[in-house]
Structures
1.
Amino acid sequence: MTLPQLRKRIDAVDREILSLLNRRATLAQRVGRIKERLGRPIFDGRREQEVLRRLARLNAGPLPPGAIGKIFREVLRASRALERSKAAKKE
């Protein structure tokens, strides 16, 4: 496979990742609305650790566990911000 072909495939994967991240973000907004209705805090450290441990177990590589952890900690941070945002409070 040539370099341009590989880059085209990477671009396609990037589009998929972006779509999935936005789907996850929409779900995080919904979670934020539910937590607000229930009077629950946005941050749930136990849940975040559970998510990170599950992803570490599922990771078959080649990305090392540390990289997966960093990536998903950022995803979780952004999700918490969305849960807190006014957008999450809109029905």
2.
Amino acid sequence: MNALDALTRGQSARDCTQAPEADPEVRFQTRRGTVEVFSSARQLPPGLRAIAFAGQTRDLRYYEIADQSLAGQFEHHYLVLHGAGPDETAVQPVFLVDQDILEGLPRRLHVLLSWPRRFFPRWFQLRMLVAGCPAGTGALDCSEPWAVEALCEALGIYAKQVKAAVILLKDFSAASRPGFGPFESAGYRRVPSMPGCTLELNFASFEDYMRDQLGRSLRYKYIKLNKRTPIEWEVRTDVTPLADEIHALYKQTHARSKMRFEFLTPEFFALIGREMPERARFFLWRVDGRLAAFALCLVQGDTIHHLNIGFDYAVSLDRQLYFVTMRDIFRWSLRQGLKRYVTGQLNYDPKLHFKMRLAPLDLYSRHTSPLLNPFFKAALGYLQPVRHDPIIRQFPNAAEL
């Protein structure tokens, strides 16, 4: 079944939000109030669905798309936090995953630490309760003190109920640090996650940017690219008919990644354009009439968020498609009056040459066993992948990590 058939035969995410309200699967108390747990975003009260994560780039629709399209990879749940006041209600998506915490380490270190798996197959593979999104950065629906304190306590209680060994808050912006004191007081350790990158689009044209900010080698690359036959490209919102072709390119790029967490599906690419049409933008490049590269972006306010990319490596290296895609995205963004470009994790070498700055992201984690947590926190300092990436340390704001 291809992506189009799947969407035709099943309900879309928007249709699913019309499902009748369901009773929570679990309900328990914290010092701040009641917590209800739902297994799907579509089961949340309609009024809450309408306002959860409102105004954020990844609103509740994005979490629901990930929930629906990544089924089988993660076990999704939604915590609804109720405080003492009538307006004190917040939603926090969470998911359960069995995670190899050695993933992303240099090969030699991985081999050194993983050899006991010959005798203990689940060595350094832990069941985790993760707060955040499996397909992107994390965020809080409500960052008021009552909600942060309630979430901190709720995660501890719920982790024991689902028998999770580790609790993790995944990829939260460094801007959240001032409000996350309750987590550090509760025994969590903050370590840097692989950061995103950002660039202020404070130039009038790509040519100005190329002349004034790029180094000689990258300028020369673009001078040569600009002399070659232009590559056909377009921007779309709904790519349902192309979802399988896009996914084939995504698979090629995903297979080359040194770190893997989620694996997106054709349904993800189809749904995000259908359910978030005012934000989703797919950039598509064709070589000799065939789709050769794509980029998925979300536009929110004056910022373009570059989420995913994929290439046909049979032509990508010869045609320098990575650099072509960056040039064309920047040109399009300038024409739309956008002011800021934000991109995701990994592939830091070209981003350094594009004069981007790091956008720090944090992980907060602790072991559910008070006896093991001190050892776990100490190990996090060595297991964090950022520690082993020399390129990251070359960025001018690396100290912010």
3.
Amino acid sequence: MSGGLILAVGTITGLVAQRLRIPDVALFLLAGMAIGPQAVGLVDIKADSALYQILLLFGASYILFDGGASLRFHVMKQVWITIIVIATVGVLITATITTAAAHYVLDAPWIVAALLGATLASTDPATLVPIFRQVHIKDRVAQMVMSESAFNDATGAIVTFGVLTIAMGSGEFSLTWSLFELLKEAVVGILAGAVLGYLAALLIAHERWAFFMEYAPVVTIMAVIGAYFAADGLRASGFMAVFVFGIMLGNKEAFGFKMAADEAQKLDQYVEITAFIMRLFIFILLGSQVDFGLMNQYLLGGVSVIAIFMLVARPVTVFLCALPDRRARWSRNEMLFMCWTRETGVIPAALAGILLGVKAPGAQMVASVTFIAILMTILIQAPTTRWLGGRLGLLEKRH
């Protein structure tokens, strides 16, 4: 019953968002808050339930695959340096500034402040990919931001677990070990996604070996699940794997594979509809988890910290990481747009949930401020993306 209600509410909400010409994730979040247990109570799916975890995991993976499939090799060649730097060094810069803000504004102990900084440091692909599907921003800017969001979740998770190790007194943080883990997660995740992406492209688009061309939608679902769990089983980033899988499939023509026009159109329509269903479930469920009582405990300080996070930490990160990239030659307007586009969502929420689960020091404060960050970034930044893109001359017309 809950699933049908979420689907009905999400469909109506998506239509309203389309009429208002704003990204639907913002309205899905509000709808989730309205029908969740803290408001009218029509939906009450616990965050630690198997259903919630499955929907979150598969939904985020599929949205990430969809984002990867929209990227193009020739664009990524221009901006790959910025992607790598901002997804690694950039996460550390954001975490450091946010940690300092939490310590001085909330008077939190340094270790608790560091947990918050690490939790918030990565951007969220499940939020950003749908936004750029609906708001057509200049290709290289959109692809840089989407790629950053896909690749920095591993960095954010490793930094969070490194700080958690110290906070729980279960060991010492090792920079060498963390760098090795990050490199391993990245390489194995990329390889798993690349191999499965190539095989999927071969089986649905090769001139002689396209045995599953008519079943391309089923193949994509199986491969998304396979790529995530293959990487996860190898202790690598499952999200990175499904993103790379999407890139490989989306660039199948570069390998000499080409689907028939009608089959390609059918696959595109299927992916678009499925991605819409996944994001309405993810963000309505995410909104339903907002604990107003918990947020109120740290509301004023939390809003102040997130304001610093949005208006100081992100711009400093973008300019320090993107400005030196002479290959990309980012313009001022492009960098200003990137400064504003760093929505927080599923990944930080999941990390905050883990901290609550292990009873980490200050976990309630971290969870409270994380949800404030989710609400502020999605409800303020997402709806203004189209307006800002237009003001900065970065909108593109597509037919």
4.
Amino acid sequence: MRAKSSFRSAFIFSTFLGVVCAYVVLIFAVCINENNNEMPTLAGDQSNNGSNKTGVKDSDKKSEYKENKSEKISENIDAGKSVLLSDRAWLFVYYTSKGHDGLFYAWSSDGLLWQQIRDGKPFLRPEVGGEVKERLMRAPSICRGMDGTYHMVWTAGWESKSIGYASSKDMINWSKQRLLPVMEHEKGTRNTWDPELFYDDNGKRFYIIWASTVAGSFKETEGTGEGNFNHRLYYTTTVDFAEFTQTKLYWNPEHNVIDPLLIEDKSGDVSERYLLFYKDETFKPNPKKNLLLATGASPTGPFNIRKVVSHTDWVQGPSVLRIGGDWYLYYDCYAKRHFGAVKSNDLNNWTNITEKLCFPTKARQGTIIEIDKETLKKLRELK
């Protein structure tokens, strides 16, 4: 009897010990996974009308949106050292919330994982555009000139006829901010939004392109936008940001349009060298709110509309990278508060890669530019 009792006790103890060990192993595995901060899966939105007519392969439909963990990933990296996986890196310059908080940076070496710099603190705050509480630094667009100077324009106010401007040699120290009165001459102008800065290598000049609503213009599409906005694209050019050409209508795609992004295609993927990504801002009778691509033979067109390229609607703020032989198009899925992206090797067929992205959680639209290792090292050393 005593032997049977001892055997029973040993069996119970062994079973209990096995359960405890299994539990410890499980906890250890969870901790390892958390410390590794695996890249989250970010699901693409669904259209508000329940359809996706973009022709893009949507690889993550019905998948659940998970919290972006790029801040936690960056905490595991020594901020005082450059940790590049390749010879190049990219800097994402963006705004947060409504645009009152200023200019923020994130960096990436692969175009997928974007890590915030300076612990998410702003590098620059808006100093122009009316009363302090009304000032914006929204939708920043940055372009580097032939002399190495970085020039930046941004939306400075909700109902301003001017846009903000500043320049920098190192992306750290910025010039005094000022307003460029690009639509002050135009009566009935309601706004100047989402300016795009593009440098034309052939013409040796900068193009500034933006969206404005001018009362009484384009009556055929009145009432199609939110808040009765009826945007078209306008532009001016400059060689020194001191003198500017007369503002002109840039493009009228015969519908509400904002968020221009102009790229020179040097790859030969299409016969027209200039790529214009833009947002169809139509709200009524049926919302569009998606991104399209048009191509042209010059920086001013004429442009031929190709097709919708975003994997879903209710998006804004296109940014483009050329990585290897692929085009990466990024955008702010603002309705779902995360970033999305598609990829193409021919500008015709686009694949949704949103689930592979990791952006700072509070990031909104901005500009992606290539930077050198030394510049990135200095930026990441800042406190």
